[in-house]
Amino acid sequence: MQDGFVKVSARTPEVRVADVSFNVEQCVRQVEDACADGAKVVVLPELCITGYTCEDLFWQDALLDAAQRGLYAFAEHTSALDALLFVGVPWRVNGKLYNCAAALCGGEILALIPKTFVPNYNEFYEMRHFTPAPASCDCDFIDMGQEELVPFGTNVLLRCASMPDLVVAAEICEDLWAPNPPSVSHALAGATVIVNLSASNAIVGKAAYRRQLVVGQSARLVCAYIYTSAGWGESTTDVVFAGHNMVAENGTLLAESAPFGAGNATSEIDVSSITTERMRMSTFNTTRPGGKADYVEVDFTLEREKTVLTRHVSARPFVPSDGAKRDARCEDVFTIQAWGLAKRLEHTHCSCAVVGVSGGLDSTLALLVTVRAFDLLGLDRGGIIAVTMPGFGTTDRTHGNATTLSDALGVQLREVSIVPAVRQHFADIGHDESVHDVTYENCQARERTQIIMDIANKEGGMVIGTGDLSELALGWATYNGDHMSMYGVNGGVPKTLVRHLVRYVADTCENDAEADILYDVLDTPVSPELLPANEDGTIAQQTEDLVGPYELHDFFLYQVLRRGFTPRKVYRLALYAFEGEYDEQTILKWLKVFYRRFFAQQFKRSCLPDGPKVGSAAVSPRGDLRMPSDACATLWLSELQGL
């Protein structure tokens, strides 16, 4: 329970139909095992104290009296556990029988939550025995043998006093299948975690549908959803129960026990990220009619401790690890880029595009996108002017790749050396060419931009930007140099994904000459080539030596911009995701660099050219990032002190 993480567990105990003592013993064993594993919220199935399949035995007082004693025994045996527990039990209230979820903590029964939608179709005959939850939103308070009365009703929120973002509500099985599940109201009332105690039987195809419901509901409600279902031991007279358990968070399945499996789904949910995401979404309105007036809030307390992470945290959040999904992502991004540019070309009646090509990854991707946009519009590729502009640091390898690729793609190639013009400019401003400082570098970048802008003017063309999202986040661009274009096709694409996009084209282009060049571009170190080459003609200036590994910066970028995490949480997640790849000090060093540069370089992002958003993280001043250019990084950097 630190940094918003809470370990939760959905478990299926073995049951014997109508054998309450045995069932309570098994339920206690399951929650003890879960708590030993660090779980702070543990959910057991529907009616598991008696068994779901008791049928007309639910009319027997002997069973119902035993169920009452069983719940009290369960409370007593779990009183020393530091966890919020949910267990299914039948309960009589005002002469009616209800299918209930009992919530407990520290041996105290906190609430009794009845099932709202009681099925009475196909194989289900629950209404023969159970009454649906009262239609009134108001909770009753019933005597359960404790010092205080216990709320009985569907509108109950269980709020953790030691972690305010942990707000839990419950629904039962069929409730999720209904057109308007109780969980909708729960989430709008502030619940960040929904638990579902279920006894969903196994039939062909149902597991996949059930999974879609759980994951989809967690996404729709921006919540964590813990689902558990009855399993081994239930009667198989007409149906079979498979113990299908799941933990989902905001559209992502974190853990799942396969049907007929071990019956245990355990993971960590991040309740702080849920509240942050809801805060961002103007359409997630928790001030629904009536507000929380019709909800009863019950506090419980758990010990605060550092939750050990076991959930998957991708070190490369922009790049799917699965090959097929990665290819699909690349095709989506590539198409978005090309369609965005095609629309701009069509709107401006432009049939000429100018791309500065260096033989590096970014300019290669921009050229490939431009080619696809021209193909979409049925324009002659000869209208694409690829301009190579060798300077003081250009190597034969990158120059050769730029020219060969242009030929393979069937576009115009022009070469304009920047050396004479830059030397004249050095003389004009009084700069010593032997001093390889920022002036030396930026004069070259701005000269290249001037050349392609002027060629575009001369030819009636449009300058296509090459800079990517990662460079813009770090401010690794020359202001009014490569920072500027007439349409920036790469501005929404992080560097780690740029590489895979180029590889995707190489793998699928069916042009051997084009593919060979693209593979060599992929093997070339990332460099602006603004410093003279080494004596052996190789690249002397490598970007990642200066600003840090792009895979780290892309990880930071995602966690900071997309998730809104604190610096300490970003650092913790980076240590976990990159374990064995980078040590603590390396990660901390480049995280500080990220924050310093991100804040200091906002003025460049405040005047970016148009370009398509392709993913969930973006820095356009007209879209996702409205950030003042004068904001201070002090608060963020101070949080990293002492780590």
Rg, alpha carbons: 31 Å
Q: What would you say the CATH architecture of the largest domain is?
A: 3-Layer(aba) Sandwich
Into which percent range does the helicity of residues fall?
Answer: 25-40%
Give the N-terminus to C-terminus distance in angstroms.
20 Å
Q: What is the CATH domain class of the largest domain? A: Alpha Beta
Q: What is the assigned CATH homologous superfamily of the largest domain? A: HUPs
As for the CATH topology of the largest domain, it is Rossmann fold
Shape descriptor reads elongated
Strand proportion:
15-25%
How many structural domains does the protein architecture include?
2
The strands making up the biggest β-sheet line up spatially as 13-12-11-10-9-8-15
Structural class: alpha/beta
Per DSSP E runs of 2 or more residues, the count of β-strands stands at 20
Low-confidence stretches: none
Main beta sheet = 7 strands, mixed
Number of helical segments?
20
Chain-averaged pLDDT: 93
Keywords:
7-stranded mixed sheet, alpha/beta, elongated, single chain, Nitrilase/N-carbamoyl-D-aminoacid amidohydrolase, 20 strands, 6-stranded mixed sheet, 643 residues, Rossmann fold, 20 helices
Structure commentary:
The protein has 643 residues and is α/β, with parallel strands linked by helices. The protein folds into 2 domains: 5-300, Nitrilase/N-carbamoyl-D-aminoacid amidohydrolase (4-Layer Sandwich); 323-639, HUPs (Rossmann fold). It has 20 helices and 20 strands. It has a 7-stranded mixed beta sheet. A hairpin with a 7-residue loop joins strand 6 (140-142) and strand 7 (150-152). Helix 8 (361-377) packs across helix 13, helix 9 (396-409) runs antiparallel to helix 14 (512-522) and helix 10 (419-429) crosses helix 11 (438-459). The protein is elongated. It starts with a strand and ends with a helix. The model has no long low-confidence stretch (mean pLDDT 93).
